[in-house]
Every structure is written in C-alpha cells, then in structure tokens.
Amino acid sequence: MAKIYILDTNVLLQDPLALYSFDENKVIIPAVVLEEIDSKKRYMDEIGRNAREVARLLDDLREKGKLHEGVKLPNGGNLVVELNHRTFDQMKKHFIDTTNDNRILAVALNISIEQKEMKKNEEVILVSKDALLRVKADALGLKSEDFLSDRVVKFDRMYLGYEENWLSPEKMDLLFEEKRLPISEVKTSHTYPNHFYIFKDLANGTRSALAMTDKKGEYINLFLSQQEPVWGIKPRNVQQKMALELLTREDIPLVTLAGKAGTGKTLLSLAAGLYQTEDLNKYKKLLVARPVVPMGKDIGYLPGEKEEKLRPWMQPIYDNLEYLFNTNKSGELDQILAGMSSIQVEALTYIRGRSIPDQFIIIDEAQNLTKHEVKTILTRVGEGSKIILMGDPKQIDHPYLDEYTNGLTYVTEKLKHRGESGHIKLEKGERSGLAQLAADLL
C-alpha cells in the first residue's frame, strides 16, 4: 500500500538526507517546515549547517520541476512542498493555539481526511523526532512514527568490544600452550579485529583466560594483561585491563570507550596518554578536548581570556590531572602544566581546519557530537597520531541526538570491522560505591 509521509522540521535538521529515506512513497514537507528551517540557516553550528544543506537539496530538486506540484526523487518516490491543507477548522476543537507544531498537525490531519473522503488507499504518516507531537497526532487519530533511519544500531545491541565464551579443556590447554587459537576453533558470532574474549573452562568454571583477536580477525591470541601501573594507575577490573591494552597499543590508532559515569574512561585515557607522551616519548603532545555543551541551563558568557573562559568546561579534565599528578595545593597543577608544554587542554571549537600529527588525542564527552562533527574531528588526525573518543551514550545533552544516533555510537559501529580501531564498554564503576549506586539506579 502506498504511503504519504509528512516530515517534521526536526527530522530534516537532524538528517537532511531524510528526504530520500522513504522508498517509493510520497514525501510531504509542509510550508511551515520551510519557515522553521529558514530561521535556522544562519546558525553557526550543526543545526545551521543542516538547515543550509536542506535548502541546497531542495534547490537542486527544484531544477526538476515545481516543488508544490511534486517532483520525482531518485529512489522512485515523490516530494511535495505542501502549500494547501492548512485550514485550522478541524484542529480548533482539539488544539486552539496556532503554533508551528499545530500547523504541521493541521496539514497532516487535513490530508488524512481528504484521503478518506476520496477513498484513496494511501496511508498518511507523520514523522517526527518530537515525542509530544507524536502524542498529539495519536490523539487526533493520525499515525505517527519516529525517524529511525539515522540509527546505526538497533535497540540494546550496541557493540561491547568483548564477550564471554566457553572452551573445552582441550582447547583451553591449546590456548595456553600455543598462545593462540584460530577463530574457527571458537563458537562466536563476532569475527571483529581487536575483539576481546573472556574464556572459561567447560570442565572447571574457575579456570579462565583473557584473549584478543588479531588485527585481521583470523586468530585469537592469549592476552597477558599489563601488570605494571601506567602513570600510577592500575586497572581494577577486566574491562579496564582491556581498555588499557587498547590505549597503549601503537598499532591501534583509534580507540572508542563507552561507559557510565565513574567507570574510569577519562582517568585511564589520561594515564595512558601521559605515559606514552612523557615517559616513552612516542608522541610529541597530549591533546585533550571536549565539546562545549552545557548540562541544564547555560551560564552565559564568561569573563577573561580563552584559558579562563574554558576552565569551567574543562574542569573534569583538570580534576583527573590533579589526581594523576597528586597535587594538593591550589594552583599547583597550573604550574606543572605551564612547565610541561606537551599537554594541551582545549575546546573542540578550535579543532576545525587543523592537522594534528604525532599527538595523543583524547576527545571527552564524544556522545554529544553529531556524525558530521565526529567525522570532522577524525579527518584532522595526522600521521603518527592516536585518538581516543569516549563518553556515555546514555548521558546526552544535545537536543537532536540520542543513544543510537550520536557520534560516539556512530564511529564505534561503523569502524568495528577495521583493524585500526578498538572498542570497549566499561561496565563497573570504580569512582565510589555511591557513584556506582547512582549510575545503576537513578
């Protein structure tokens, strides 16, 4: 059955290519959506960029015909910019205010009524990222859907980077003797490179082994975790051991770390970065950056020079550095960093246009990055550099992102098949018992 999809503004502002995501069906953009997109095109951020991209795509389609009459899309569907069906008569009995959301609802409702009156066999569906608009649509008897095509992973199936598995006593003995096993000897659904295994003996449940696939995903190598502390930090659980292995491997230039608050993502990354930059001299500089996205109400403009303005945003990084350098006095960390020109802490705002070779790069709070922003960052990485993206996909402050569409999840899922990347989801909180309790239950 043919369908008519009516798009809300937020769908196009999140993914301009959503225009082409509805197969051979009809796609309708209400005129009010164009007005809202026009109001965003001057923004100097991801929303503004997407608004301008939508405008460019529509202008290209305009070359094929009049948009208000309908033009053919490359995937076989049709696109119409709807100028009619705007009457509010049917809406007044339910929603009085003529807000932009209600104007979009009015278009969808009037088209749905027209379809029924003309006895056409076309289902009308409102597509919106706004849950409350979908609730309103349901109240009016309209079918509504979230836009899910931009999700890179299905619900609750995000890649962990490791798995628990069972081996027969014979294969366990072979693993310890040969230090490796062909991937064909293990029953697993994953054949990703740099993937970890926690093996347990079928005959003796207390006997276990930690292993890791090679960069080609052909062999599983026995993994002997590092015993010596890295810059004074020793892993407290098996996931942290795996993470530290990825963080200290030169042949894995991209590492993604996901986990709840207090699991040690930032501390482990900084310790590994300082160890390889200051002790081993593998990298010329340690660069730490994070997006400037406030949690809750923004505090507005901040006084002072760039460093003074950035300090509140970067404070979580400084807290971890104070722990690693074991500073006790006020200002002591600033004096240490001033004497170590190899450590640089800054906002992601200043990374565009740069080329960053021979550096250990840490990007904190990467879950607040869009797909476009994370691509921009990764394309800045120069020869000889290593980059770590980390964050908690469940703690997102960006209004147009969620657990399944953010930049951190996007990179993890898209590059998990590549030998140049490794991923670990840290499960256990090590900050404090209270922090773990809050992360689990609140």
Oligomer: single chain
Order of helices and strands: EHEHHEEHEHEEHEEEEHEHEHHEEHEHEH
Determine the structural class based on helices, strands and strand pairing: alpha/beta
CATH superfamily of the largest domain: P-loop containing nucleotide triphosphate hydrolases
Beta fraction: 15-25%
Q: Assign the CATH topology of the largest domain.
A: Rossmann fold
Choose one word for the global shape.
globular
Helix content: 25-40%
Task: Average the pLDDT over all residues and give the rounded result.
Answer: 87
Top-tier CATH class of the largest domain: Alpha Beta
Number of domains: 3
Key traits:
single chain, Rossmann fold, 13 helices, 17 strands, 34% helix, globular, P-loop_NTPase, nucleotide-binding, PIN_dom, PhoH-like ATPase
Describe the structure.
With 442 residues, the protein is an alpha/beta fold. It folds into 3 domains: 3-145, 3-Layer(aba) Sandwich (Rossmann fold), CATH 3.40.50.1010; 153-224, Archaeosine Trna-guanine Transglycosylase, Chain: A, domain 4; 237-441, Rossmann fold, CATH 3.40.50. The protein is 34% helix and 19% strand. It contains 13 helices and 17 strands. It has helices spanning 9-14, 31-40, 46-62, 100-117, 131-139, 169-178, 238-247, 265-279, 306-325, 332-339, 371-378, 407-415, 433-441, and strands spanning 3-7, 26-30, 71-72, 78-82, 123-127, 143-145, 162-167, 180-182, 196-201, 208-213, 219-222, 254-259, 285-290, 343-347, 359-363, 386-391, 421-426. The strands form 3 sheets. Strands 3-4-2-1-5-6 form a 6-stranded mixed sheet. The protein has a 6-stranded parallel sheet with strand order 14-13-15-16-12-17, sandwiched between helices. Helix 7 runs parallel beside helix 8. The longest helix has 20 residues, at 306-325. It is globular and about 75 Å long. Residues 294-302 have low confidence and may be disordered. GO terms for molecular function: ATP binding. Residues 3-135 form the PIN domain.
